[in-house]
Amino acid sequence: MPSRKKKILGERSRRWHRMERWAQGWAIYKKNFLGRIGLVLLSIFVLMALASFIPPLVDPMYRPMSGVDPEITASVGPNFRHWLGTDFMGRDLFSQLLAGARVAFMVGISSAFVSIVLGTLIGMTAGYMGGWTDTLLMRVADMIMVMPTLLVVLILAALFGQLNIWSIVLIIALFRWPGVSRVIRAQTLTLKERPFIDAARVAGASHLRIIFRHIMPNVLPLSFLYMTFRVTAAINIEAALAFLGFGDPGTVSWGMMLQWVWKTGYMFKAPYWLLPPGICISLITLSFYLLGRAMDEVLDPRLRKEGERY
Amino acid sequence: MELWRYARQRLFQIGITFFVILTILFILFRIAPGDPVSRMIGPEMTTEDAAHLISQLGLDRPLWVQYVYYVKNFFSGNFGHSFHYGRPVIEVIGDRLPNTMLLFTTSVMISALLGVFLGKIAAWRKGEKTDTVMTLLALVTHTVFLPWMALILIWIFGYRLGWFPINGMISEEVWLDPSSGFWAKSVDVVHHMVLPLLTLSLIYFGSYLLIMRSAMLETLKEDYILTARAKGLTEKVIRNKHAAPNAALPVVTSVGLSLAFSINGGALTETVFSWPGIGRELVFSVSNNDYPLAQAAFLLISAVVLVSNLVVDILYAYLDPRIRY
Amino acid sequence: MALLEVEDLSIGYHTDQGILHAVEGISFTVNRGRSLGLVGESGCGKTTLGMAILRLLPQNGMVLKGRIRFEGRNLLELDAEAMRRIRWKEIAMIFQAAMNALNPVHRVADQVAEAILTHEPETPREVVRSRVEALFDQVGIPRSRMWDYPHQYSGGMKQRAIIAMALALNPKFMIADEPTTALDVIVQDQILKEAKRIQETFDIGMIYISHDIAVVAEVCHDIGVLYGGHLVEYGDRESVLDTPLHPYTRMLLASFLTVNGKAAKAPQAQGDSPDLVHPEPGCRFCERCRYAEAACRLEPVKYVAVSPTHRVLCSRCA
């Protein structure tokens, strides 16, 4: 009998149960063709990001920001020494592209992480506390959601001067949490009604303990699902900022590359410069999106392919 | 009618939101590093003009008085003087606002309608080639990086093929020529509008298509569709009269939720295409440290987003009787 | 001529594990002015039957065998357009859970009018309007509420509106699938009386599907008991109620309160519901039957007629 096993093995059997669920989830994920493509694309980008450390080690002229090929004075197309060519200053485009992958992941993941931490905390609090706290938090969330993030960062750039990459990451996170909090709040509201919460309360658990020990583990999968969408938003906003010229001047990101090709007038003349960064931004967004949708299918059984109906 | 009451309620809510934004901006401008006075008074102004402006904006008074002046000035349209243009800010943004509204509203309508129409078809032909193609297209276009898409379109259609102008909203030759009639001028604007509109519509229609498609698939499982079929209605009528109106509702909600994104995209598009709108003005004013203009542009854009939200909400209430009654 | 004749009907659904045999070898007849109650627990195939008659099975459902004759014509052989014309005009259906059977974005009266206009498109507007009004009067919905939206109606009102809509074209036959399940007892009673009155007044042939034999017993002339896709007992009301033969029928009858309020002794229900993807060749009730023998499982079951109007699917029960 399964129930007896659980009582005897306790913690070990719970871990087993969780692993089973992971395996199940993976099986469902694998079936999703687009999800697999997303994963493949993502791995390519991860490889790119990891590989970004290599070129400068090979030769200082491959440094993305400051490395200049002494023999080149203008932008040239792909050749043996520079696989994608160089920009107008003679810097290697391929190493810039690799560095951009690293920046994209950094920006995307940290910003998304902060967003969901904030969103989850606020959503859980709002859902659990209810009443005035709930209304107030949700009104604030509504107001923030209405704001166009990019333009907010712009205005802050105007006031506070050139922003560095981490400020950008933080500001993006501060404006993207409302989406997560709504969903987490809804989930918390459903969970609140479940008997195991009542049981915990009767046993004397404090509110904090209930929130962190009981509600949080159940909403975390949802948080992580929504993290994928936050990553794409963060990457795109940072890229747009860099593109407009408001990015961190010390960071080479794909948006920055596009800014350079645009502003230096090489836009029409150098497709080898124009195309790769844009394709990368678009593809990394696509891959995270596909990942998110496939994970959605894993988490929400209603979305799975229906084979049987009664 | 119930709709009016709902509209009034929402209007009140966005009024409050706007006030909050106004206030926060005021605070930000004051706490940012640097002298707030120099933010409003341009370096090229004469001392008289400067003194006049200072008293007009109340910059020499205590903080809370400044706030009162600030709000009052906002509602009377006095936003100060633009450093860059040397004109009152209100004039500059007055020139730009209609251009943005033109591009913005047209692109939102086109992408929403296109998304709904194609999403309906994709759902109907689920699993067939048409559906796969459309879904993939939607997926790809809505993840493409907007400024890059704009650049590509300019490169192909403007530079290479020469079909459309590369930038701007008007061709001076047409507009300065006294003999051009209304028709010629309109055609000229439309000609310039094609590429920016294409950019915006391509990027945004994808998500509406996907939402409409899944909403249609969900709706088609509902009991009232079964009833409609049992009543002997043709598939076409069921699709268009019973399923689509219900499925379109989440799309309307989605349009409302993504208005902030659409405005972001609008600003980027205006910048790349040099379309003389408020978004571009905001970007330029920030680069030029033209604070009065930047502040006003930002406030105006916020107002546009809020009002658009209101419009979408009212539209939703109109379409869904469960809200109205 | 019988109004509706179902002959040896078998229906299955495609699933990941194979074909699920929802209905197997079912035959019955319904005449004008008579009502047949189909009773069984969830999953027994009664809803599938109802949907199959109007050819409204979902994408993965299909008729494997048999005929459905309506006024002599086999409905399964009609093309889509001909079937569409029969729907609602000749045979109408009231679905389970009427809560969602009305489209939320259209007014109720419009939806009823739509039924009329679809099949009789030349009807002038005033005539349509007065017909709709008459229908609402008949089911007892005040005219002032006609133009409301469905969400403004109570459950009972919605159900009555559905009935009004079903009657809009004066169908000859009606299928009512658990029309009262979601309603409270008092409303349920009203609706049942309403259904009976309508059936008698308009001489409509009816199939009444329910899981509750008490409801069916009150309203129907004939009773058919379904289990695991088989029609295990079929006969006129008096016979089946007075002398239930199949153990399942007896279980159903025993499991509700008697007049005195004391629950009659219900025989224990043991075992799981039958596996319909890989069904046994024999009787499907064996798992839960007290009298089951080895032979019951292996040999295909046949009908035994106890009287011209009463038969049972079990060789040992007669």
Cα Rg of chain C? 20 Å
How many alpha or pi helices of chain A?
A: 12
Give the CA-based shape of chain A: elongated
Spatial strand sequence of the major β-sheet of chain C: 6-7-8-3-9-10-12-11
Distance between the termini of chain A: 30 Å
**Percent of residues in helices of chain A:** over 70%
Percentage beta strand of chain C = 15-25%
| β-strand amount of chain A | under 5%
Biggest pleated sheet of chain C: 8 strands, mixed
**Radius of gyration based on Cα positions of chain A:** 24 Å
Q: Tell me which protein chains meet in the greatest interface and how many residues each side has.
A: A-B, 42 and 48 residues
Report the order of strands and helices of chain C. EEEHEEHEHHHEHEHEEHHHEE
What average pLDDT do the residues of chain A reach? 83
Q: Uncertain regions of chain C: pLDDT < 50 for 5+ in a row?
A: 262-268
- Helix amount of chain C: 25-40%
Query: What is the strand tally of chain C?
Result: 12
CA(first)-CA(last) distance of chain C: 29 Å
| Derived structural class of chain C | alpha/beta
Task: Walk me through this protein's architecture.
The complex is a heterotrimer of chains A (310), B (325) and C (318). Chain A is 75% helix and 0% strand. Chain A is mainly α. The longest helix of chain A has 38 residues, at 207-244. Chain B is mostly helical. Chain B has helices at 2-31, 36-40, 47-57, 63-75, 89-124, 129-143, 146-160, 172-176, 182-219, 223-230, 235-257, 259-273, 278-287, 291-319, 321-324. In chain B, helix 10 packs antiparallel against helix 11. With 318 residues, chain C is α/β, with parallel strands linked by helices. Chain C has helices spanning 46-53, 80-86, 108-119, 125-139, 155-167, 185-202, 213-219, 237-242, 247-254, 294-298; strands at 4-15, 18-30, 35-39, 61-70, 73-74, 91-94, 173-177, 205-210, 222-227, 230-236, 304-307, 310-312. In chain C, a hairpin with a 2-residue loop joins strand 1 (4-15) and strand 2. The longest helix of chain C is centred in the middle third of the chain and has 18 residues, at 185-202. Chain C is globular, with a radius of gyration of 20 Å. Mean pLDDT of chain C is 85; it is low at 262-268. The chains are: A mainly alpha (310), B mainly alpha (325), C alpha/beta (318).
Q: Can you give keywords for this protein?
A:
heterotrimer, A: 310 residues, mainly alpha, elongated, C: 318 residues, alpha/beta, 8-stranded mixed β-sheet, 4-stranded antiparallel β-sheet, 10 helices, globular
